[in-house]
Amino acid sequence: MAASTAAAASAATTTVAGPALRHTIIAKCPVSKARVTHIHLPHYTAHTPMFMPVGTKGTMKGLTVQQLEQLDCHVILANTYHMSLKPGQQLLDDMGGLHTWMGWNRGMLTDSGGFQMVSLIDLSSVTEDGVEFTSPYNDGSRILLTPEKSIELQNSIGADIMMQLDDVVNPLCPRERIEEAMWRSIRWLDRGIKAHRNPTRQNLFPIVQGGLHPDLRRKCIDEMVKRDAPGYAIGGLSGGEDKKEFWRIVSLCTDLLPENKPRYCMGIGYALDLVVCSALGVDMFDCVFPTRTARFGNALVPWGSMSLKHSAFKDDARPIDPGCPCPTCAQYSRAYLHRIVTRETTAAHLISVHNIAYQMQLMREMRHAIIEHRFPEWTQTFCRRQYPKGNVPFWAVEALASVGIEVESTEKGYVGAGEGGADADGADADGAPVEKVDGMQE
Ligand SMILES: [Zn+2]
Q1: Which are the contacts of 150, defined by CB distance < 8 A and separation ≥ 6?
Q2: Listing from the earlier edge strand, what are the strands of the sheet with 131-134?
Q3: Which residues constitute the domain of residue 192?
Q4: Is 308 within a domain?
Q5: For residue range 210-247, what is the model confidence (pLDDT) as tens digits?
Q6: Is residue 387 part of a domain?
Q7: 154 annotated ligand-binding residue
Q8: Of these residues, 160, 286, 321, 428, which one is catalytic?
Q9: What's the gap in Å between 439 CA and the centre of ligand 1?
């Protein structure tokens, strides 16, 4: 590995993508669009493809920042919307930003606050000015989040990467509404760029909109690339659309976005989606899924997911995954976790540690495989392990074939978005039922 890493590194090209971001392409898969890059941020150099765990309210649910460091997290995501309400902007300014407040020294990305629109839609209304919310803290006050206010709050938080406020619409909305949201998001991007106070210390990423319409995505990317941002996000997906449409839009966007800048696909966290989108050329991902599903007692494993609530584990002395190097697997049995799962917060904590370790291990394996020019073979092995019965969802087979990676599947044609490694009868490889967890938001 050392030799091939050295060879890859010698071919690396570095781009100054902005005053607060340098981007080095370390290696490219000779078959697919997958790549390994280093994103040099003010607080940390992140290696991609990268998964960013999501913290809310200044903590990672169930994990300490020391654990996140030990688990090799390079960048975490914080919610601007929650942070702006509590502890609030003044306290963040007084404390010197969220890095100091929560004791995290590595990379941080903040969302604009707009994403919460989707989850709190009945509490919000959108106009050209911005988004108006009712405060969720029961004091009944109204909060207007404008593109300028979003940047002002994110400047106070001080994250390495900030996201523009965008007009969030479900990809299944009528085309007229999606087109309106796309043009509004471009106007809001310009207002955000003007309001940005720290361009030498913080990066502002635009969010590409346009729903499932290729022509709108093209127009949006045309406009946003003119703004010469340090990196770009693909937004407006994971809203219940068919996965066969989802991957085509992701692939179109990675074709059109600048090669020399980071590409971030928002709200992606299932293992199969991470692998497919990495093959399509995405560098960065985030999702609440691994920690959220942990709170429901589900552990992520190379063969899918494991519901520790199931009685099959009541006297199982093995760790969650005998091959996992995480502190939970080093110390605790499935039987122990089964005893306390969903009853004690310790269980959510221990399973969260394991699930984040799983995601980090998955991304690391992909990076090594890309650098060593064996990403297609690695992907085939991944699919065989996740789907021991061979029922790899057809959308993933199609997506991988589009970039030259052939994966065998017993699935004929499109059958729906099968997530995780659950067999058709809803049981995982250990015979325990796999619990589907719907909804990716906190
Ligand atoms: Zn583990």
Answers
A1: 80, 112, 113, 114, 130, 164, 165, 192
A2: 124-126, 131-134, 142-145
A3: 2-287
A4: yes
A5: 999 999 999 999 999 999 999 999 999 988 899 999 99
A6: no
A7: no
A8: 286
A9: 24
Query: Are both 244 and 329 inside the same structural domain?
Result: no
Same domain, 358 and 221: no
| pLDDT of amino acid 395 | 97
In this structure, are residues 34 and 372 in contact, taking their beta carbons and an 8 Å threshold?
no
Domain boundary among 323, 342, 373: 373
- The model's pTM is 0.90
- Calculate mean pLDDT across residues 260-276: 97
Q: Is 423 a catalytic residue?
A: no
Least confident residue range of 97-111, 117-131, 247-261, 301-315: 117-131
pLDDT confidence bin for 10, thresholds 50/70/90: low
Mean pLDDT, range 326-334, rounded to an integer: 97
Give the distance (Å) from ligand 1 centre to CA of residue 88: 35
User: Which is the catalytic residue, given 111, 160, 167, 316?
Assistant: 111
What is the number of structural domains in the chain?
2
286 labelled catalytic: yes
- 113 annotated as ligand-binding: yes
Q: What separation in Å is there between the alpha carbon of 332 and the centre of ligand 1?
A: 9
Boundary of a domain, candidates 287, 306, 329: 287
In DSSP notation, 59-99 reads BBTTB-HHHHHHTT--EEEE-HHHHIIIIIHHHHHHHTSHH
Q: Which residues are within 8 A (CB) of 343 and not within 5 positions of it... i.e. 6 or more apart? A: none
110 has a pLDDT exceeding 80: yes
